[in-house]
Fold this protein.
Amino acid sequence: MTEQQLPSWADPSVSPADLDAQGVSRRGLLRSAGLFGAAFALGSAATPAFASSRGPGFGGDDPRLAYLVGDHHVHSVYSHDAKYTFSQQAQAAAKYGLDWMVFNEHSNFGHADYGAKLEHAEIVKARAENPRQLIFQGLEWYIPAAEHCTIFAAPGPHETDVLTQFELAYDGKLLGYTEGSAGATDTARNEAHAVKAIKWLAEQRRSGYVDDVLVIANHPLRLGIDSPHEMRAWRDAAPEIMIGMEGAPGAQGAALPGWRSSTSIRGEYENKPSAQSWAGYPAAAYVTYGGFDWATATVGGLWDSMLAEGSLYSITTNSDNHRTVFDTWKNGDWAAGQNFDNTGKLPDPVNTDTAQPGSDFWPGEFSRTHVGVTRYGYRSVMAGLRAGRVWLDHGHLLDGLDVRLKRDCDAGRGVTLGGRLRVRKGEKITLYVTVTTASRPNPQGILPELAHVDVIRGAVRGPVSDRDSWRAPDTRVVQTKDVSGRKGTYTLRIPLTAGDESFYVRLRGSDGNRHGAGYLGASIDPNGPIPHEPGDGDPWADTWFYSNPIFVDVAGA
């Protein structure tokens, strides 16, 4: 494999004069974490720092982290409904500051028979052309009886083979295992096949056939066909493999005013319940809230109900880039006798100089997933995702976020996102939230300003008896910090007290432009994200950040 280079902002040989404002800011964050230079040298393996230092006792520290910016949901000419080459996507990702990205092409017989191997050659070429990026090969899996997932493997001799074997053996579309309506003859078989698929991937990792593999559910509530019991079944099949879901979908440009239609919704969440949909979701679940999926945006909702079981379930965001808004390229023409099924690849696009239909932003242009690592490399990104060291933002709302929770009697760094802190009943603990504000205008020319930070707390009650539960009745916003006008890097110190039961905390914040009472009421979420009017969803005017949780295990609870 081509020798990887550090990103420019992390490379000591690159002069600060050659970095843009955000590159300078990110270098400063790297220095403050003590990881600049040799300390952040390229390494493909997860470092020992990712092993928990918290044994059976109390307290403990997580390592200092650098956050790599990425996107796990990008399409190219190897997807039947996209249009860009690998080079176009990689160049755009570099322009917008991505450190890692996953090409997850749609499963399809043309892809399985022809495209996957051709695609791998393109991946190798793209890695050589873009040595400062980490470029993964992946697959967008049509889950039997449900929606889609991103699956991607660590680079290695079997990264393509494992995806192709999986595609042919477990893809719902290819097998015809799409039925998922309640009571249908094939639904139970199809749901069970999805669980088998995830277990099979876990076995490929355990056996060493691939170094690593991860699965993330895509746009979970877009069609309402990912039921709570299915999502729990996937997670429980192999939680080290099935790590979470998109908290916010791609296609964030779908509702730009005057662009697509008067009925358009951010994320292309423009559907109504169907026979395939889980009947327990309300009609309000089928739209986005501040661009985020209802499952994530509803405080006390589906995501919180899973976290309240005490198990990590991460969220991400991404571009799902197929066709970029206002872009002027169109698909090329097929040669005689050729089609996707017999080539596995669309013709390369051609420029028209006229804006073409689209809903998406380029990778990194609007949606960003930030993953905490201690070294730069493919397996470090995957280890950071698995550990839950993840926060996300839209519109480049923040340059940096570091979150630590520690006991007041400890002098160390504490635990961070995705981690667990063990405490005693009644013990005083403090949440430290270090924010680095945006250092430059975003791609829309707006200098984002964070207006507030919300602290969300929920009780951990253990596994639910009703696997279709989507409520966490003891989760709510417990504090809101007004940070309007604050610039640079600052730390919020938020005191908490451990009660009788274990709990988790997570963070959310926005530019303050659009908010209202949350779906479950103002007593639970007084100033949450809200849906936009159809056709009037300018994403740049309504940007949010979300973090993964930190769990607090109360001794004796």
The longest strand covers residues 398-407.
